Amino acid sequence: MNCQLEGNRVKAFGKAVHALARIGDALWLDPMDKGLALRAVNSAHSGYACFLFSPMFFQHYSLESASEQGAGTIKCKLVMKSVLPLFRCLASIERNVERCQISISTPDDRVKIQFFCRHGITKTHNLHFQESEALQAVFSSHLCPNVMRAPARLLGDLVMHFPVSQEEITLSTSPLKVSLRNYCEEGRDHTRVTNTETSSHPDEFDRFQIGVNSDITFCLKELRGLLSFAESLCLPVSVHFAAAGKPVCFSVEDMALEATVVLATLMDPESGGASQAAEIPRRADAAAPPAGSREARGGVPQGAPAAMELIPSSQGSPGVAPPAPMHEADAPICSLLFRALSSEQDEGCNTAPPVLACNSEEEDDETGSPSH
Amino acid sequence: MPLSAQSQADDDQYVLKASMDNARNLSNILKAIAFKDHSIFTATPNGLRVTVEDSKCLQANAFIQAEIFQEFTIKEDLVAFQINLTVLLDCLNIFGGSSVPGVLTALRMCYRGYGYPLTLFLEEGGVVTVCKINTQEPEEPIDFDFCSTNVTNKVILLSESLKEAFSELDLTSEVLQITMSPNQPHFRLSTFGNSGNAHYDYPKDSDMMEVFQCTETQTNRYKMSLLKPSTKALALSCKVSVRMDGRGFLSLQYLVRNDEGQICFVEFYCCPDEEVEEE
User: Fold this and answer.
1) For residue range A32-72, what is the model confidence (pLDDT) as tens digits?
2) A95 and chain B: CB distance < 8 Å anywhere?
3) d(CA B204, CA B214)
4) What does the CA dihedral A321, A239, A170, A202 come to, rounded to 10 degrees?
5) In Å, how far is A81's CA from the nearest CA of chain B?
6) Distance (Å, rounded) from C-alpha B188 to C-alpha B79?
7) Given A96, A110, A122, which is nearest B196 (Cβ)?
8) Containing H/E element for A18?
9) pTM over 0.80
10) Which end of chain A is more exposed for a tag (fewer CB within 10 A), N or C?
11) What single-letter DSSP state applies at residue B68?
12) Which helix (H) or strand (E) holds A104?
């Protein structure tokens, strides 16, 4: 894969990397015919983001690799810590970078990111990558009873009042009102924290369709990157959601790109679904647990987070991250079910646990390269 | 002015007296080389040289010419002592070091000679502070034997083009590799870190390149830990000259303009990392 971006596009690309860095520690680079997808998922597998840049976004976009035929569609997994610094200072990128070239070279397992700057200066970064299968969350936004579309600044204005440390917020919607308030975990004293609530009238939204009144709680930190991205490009943000427990999807698109962030929402403790009282685990400190914890929750009912099914890379790299964030004793918070879209694998993934997020018609099946 | 109101008798005892209306003109430049506590002060009628060394492989020098001082009196050809640079900087910034426009800290440095402390009189807004800092036996600064006749490659770059590169350097790389060549890449900084390698290329015809005199292709690696401190000097400077000699020794010279527009120099000498052969 070989692509070139010019001027302002480099800054937008950098903003996408910033937004993805808020979600996960690894960055998946997936060159496809329909464009270059950048994806990330958090360790709890409860947050996923995908930024898809269509060929139109680039000055030049080609899946052919100079060195190897057929190696153009290789999928790479990069360490976020090695990519983010390259785009850290967006102001400086805006000032100095005229052109950016990204290419994937298989013989030495490197992604080459080259910045052509003012005064003839060139910066070349050759980053190691791991070959990996595609990472993709399936989410059927067309099945969501609730849809809102807000101008770029509106959501940003609603969330800016929450402290940066605020982990989770609750979005309450009814046909008459939209409000956001900070989420306070069970067991914590509401009176000892600053409680913030911001609200907005449906008239302020470009599109507002609430089929089911709902209160959904999700991680704000993971969303901020997308909101900042949308504001910088002045693009409206669409929100697709349903009742508590179902994932919420925030998306932004224009002719040249599509960005999506899918976040799990907390299950409503009073709702019928999960039989156990939900002792909601803190997602923030969810480190990838030992693989054994998955088995421990085997008996848990609906909403069991089967989580990210990453097909391990045939190269033998440890591509699979054990799913689930939670402490074994806790009822599962509603998580997302991800399915790797490698077509041969689909059948294998259709196992028992109910699917919270179904096959999305928006996501094409991978028809790309056969797995190596 | 309190500082000048010292008795004539006292004054005669000092082998070195130096005054500055704006202590920042000294403290700023010393901060650029303050990566170690230990420093050697060498004063001659030409001015003051402050040297800081690291593991016998790196030497940084700050030169403040006599003309920069409002008063610079030296009774001997050479006056030298060792002093703790961190303590000295703390004293120079004793009034807080924040830059309120129009408020200057005046400085008078006095030294009686071998065995005596360095006395600093600092005044700001009518308040005077006297500091006496112990001095030690001066060690001889290392002579890197770097002379212009042995220089094989030299470039002078505008600092602004290097500042970004230095602040972005991959610190997980143990070395900073510098390539200078009459052919492409003409001037290249490279790092080899955990996530991969990076190269910063400056072509000879760049408008940031003031002087380009490279006669042969040379690639040398220098310990990152030794060169990273030079970033401070780079940040203060407007131009930097990079020279390599036949042995691969590196000389970095920074041209620093102070608040009053006067010029001072900071230079760094560095030995190449021994493990790598010169190409």
Assistant:
1) 999 999 999 999 889 999 999 999 999 999 987 655 555 55
2) no
3) 9
4) 180
5) 8
6) 41
7) A110
8) helix A7-21
9) no
10) C
11) G
12) strand A97-105
Q: What is the rounded CA–CA span in Å between residue A200 and residue A193?
A: 23
Which residue reads 């030409």 in tokens?
A: B46
Size of interface A-B (CB pairs under 8 A): 51
Name A78's bridge partners.
A27
CA angle B253, B256, B260 (to 5 degrees): 160
List chain A residues with CB under 8 Å of B200. 121-124
In the numeric block, which tokens belong to residue B215? 């006669």
Is B198's Cβ below 8 Å from some Cβ in A? yes
**Residues in a beta bridge with A124:** A114, B199
CA atoms within 13 A on the CB side of A55: 9
Contact B222, B176 (CB under 8 A): yes
**Cα(A346)–Cα(B224) distance, rounded to whole angstroms?**
49
Which residues of chain A does B195 touch, with a Cβ-Cβ cutoff of 8 Å?
A: 79, 81-82, 127-128
Say if A85 is an interface residue toward chain B (CB within 8 Å). Answer: yes
Query: Closest partner residue to B197 among A92, A119, A126, by Cβ?
Result: A126
pLDDT in tens, B223-268: 999 999 999 999 999 999 999 999 999 999 999 998 888 999 999 9
**CA separation for the pair B175, B228 (Å, rounded):** 10
With beta carbons less than 8 A apart as the criterion, state whether B106 and B122 touch. yes
